[in-house]
Design goal:
Blueprint lengths: L2 H11 L4 H14 L15 H13 L5 E5 L7 H13 L5 E5 L3 H7 L2 E6 L2 E7 H8 L3 E6 L6 H9 L4 E7 L2 E6 L2 H15 L3 E6 L4 H8 L5
Parallel strand pairs: 1-2
Antiparallel strand pairs: 3-4, 5-7, 5-8, 6-7
Helix pairs in contact: 1-2, 2-3, 3-4, 7-8
Length: 220
């Protein structure tokens, strides 16, 4: 079958016919970006195209809820990007429950996250709420190469009462603070007075993987 023929067959399984069927097939083809390949045989589709076709089949009857299990598994980077972009575009049109161990993908498209360990729900929250709950107050300062002020800056930072520790990895200083809200302006003031050239200064936010590892004990 071609992609269009397969979608028409699925539509008939949902009792669609005539103009309504043709309209729904055309709509899901457009929504999933399959317009250029809808007339080609499915056997020649790439992995990303097949996943788009799978989603088109699921959308043919205008569902209110969709359950997706590892929708980006086994796809190459281009295919993953295509599918994640499509899922993001469906926001507000259908409620999607997505099960995945690729936490980077979850972080990109999901509004709420539930972390389950051995059948037990450990947390159910928005990503921003999780970050606020588990965020360690850390700033990273990356210095431009070839400077002689590295040690001077680290020493100046350690003298601040709101700084609890200063670590270093090459040109990057990792500064842990007691109060992130107050620390930002103070740290920037120190950078200005020490005269260092800064390539990057940012508040570090934990990734979903960081939070998962804190919540789920190691199995080793």
């Amino acid at each position: 079958m071609t992609g269009r023929e397969l979608l028409a067959t699925v539509g008939r399984l949902f009792a669609l016919s005539g103009p309504e069927l043709r309209s729904r097939v055309a709509d899901v083809i457009e929504k999933t970006g399959l317009g250029e390949v809808a007339g080609r045989r499915v056997g020649g589709y790439s992995g990303g195209m097949r996943q788009r076709l799978n989603l088109a089949q699921a959308l043919i009857n205008r569902p209110e809820v969709m359950f997706l299990d590892e929708p980006t598994s086994s796809l190459d980077p281009a295919g993953r990007h295509e599918v994640l972009e499509l899922l993001a575009d469906l926001r507000g049109q259908v409620t999607i429950f997505m099960s995945s161990h690729i936490l980077e993908d979850v972080e990109k498209v999901c509004d709420r996250v539930g972390i389950i360990d051995r059948g037990r729900l450990l947390v159910d929250s928005t990503i921003s709420e999780l970050q606020a709950r588990f965020a360690e107050p850390v700033f990273t300062i990356e210095l431009e190469p070839g400077q002689d002020h590295d040690d001077t800056l680290a020493a100046a930072l350690r003298e601040l009462t709101l700084v609890t520790s200063v670590g270093r990895d090459g040109p990057v200083l990792r500064v842990t603070v007691a109060d992130a809200a107050s620390a930002g302006p103070v740290l920037m003031s120190v950078l200005a007075t020490t005269g260092v050239n800064v390539a990057r200064f940012e508040r570090v936010r934990p990734t979903l993987e960081d939070m998962f590892l804190r919540l789920v004990p190691s199995r080793e």
